[in-house]
């Protein structure tokens, strides 16, 4: 027996409070989302200088934009004068500067304070010193990643390393040319569940046979409930009579040219902690980002990425998108079914992980490690 009273073969989950307690959520925001690299936006949303997007990262609002030299920049979305939220829109485009609506302090695309009423009479207000406060930014796979930490962790270790762990090398991912693919469809899901329920669900396929009838038709090995997605680095193979990764197994779109023969007719799933899931299939890539907003609410933005000519050619993507849209809805409904019971006294000590879910324990260990808490084993 373990200290939690479970037989040695079983492992306890996190206690229910980890999914409901605003105090624990605040710690996660500070020690996970504000401390690690966080995938904020698709680079193509910032196609031109002045295009911007605002994103909640932990407890902060971050403004991501493209400057005149075409580099991506990210700043705290807070006016340096009296702290007004500079931009309240989720996205848009300015011509050359961001102007605070309160007293009209104006910042250029590099964040410098360039104008303010009567600025010349205020020599002590330095234009750089009182510029927008930058955060670290990187572009990879056609996405903009930000890090709010003063001294960020290694991007190579945290982000690229997660891909290497799943696929064996980064070249296997690069064959999909994700940065050159185009968003064919974006769906935003407002999920009434804690972000960790979504991660845990994505990491196991014990539920696949129960809730994913369309997916298990296309990927028969998922039907036995044992093929944890975490371990499908080898890539789950399409069923013999399946023609494409579509809701009815009908043919998909043009195959991405770099995809190797070994990757063809296979599905790969990658988790990049803390908030990205990537699915790779021969003709498209499905890229999920989670934006945790409360202990019991997570917005998930999901992009379906195809070859440029497929999207530009106006091809019918509906059967292709519908497969994983259904999978997402089935998964999020399951997470929403769990969320209300996390607060039950029955779940105060949590539940159990069966052997096919045992890698979720690794995720829980990681959460404990980040938060500086420890679970008895
Ligand atoms: Fe922004 Fe005053 S708070 S200009
Ligand atoms: Fe699922």
Automatic annotation (TrEMBL):
Q: Which cofactors, if any, are listed as required?
A: Fe cation
Q: Which Pfam families match?
A: Rieske, Ring_hydroxyl_A
Keywords from the UniProt entry:
2Fe-2S, Iron, Iron-sulfur, Metal-binding, Oxidoreductase
- Annotated ranges, domain Rieske: 37-146
Instruction: List the Gene Ontology MF annotations in alphabetical order.
Output: 2 iron, 2 sulfur cluster binding; iron ion binding; monooxygenase activity; oxidoreductase activity, acting on paired donors, with incorporation or reduction of molecular oxygen
Q: Which InterPro entries match?
A: Rieske_2Fe-2S (IPR017941), Rieske_2Fe-2S_sf (IPR036922), Ring_hydroxy_dOase_asu_C_dom (IPR015879), Rng_hydr_dOase-A (IPR001663)
Q: Which SUPFAM superfamilies match?
A: Bet v1-like (SSF55961), ISP domain (SSF50022)
Q: Which PANTHER family match?
A: CHOLINE MONOOXYGENASE, CHLOROPLASTIC (PTHR43756)
What protein name does the entry list? Rieske 2Fe-2S family protein
Q: Which domain of life is it from?
A: Bacteria
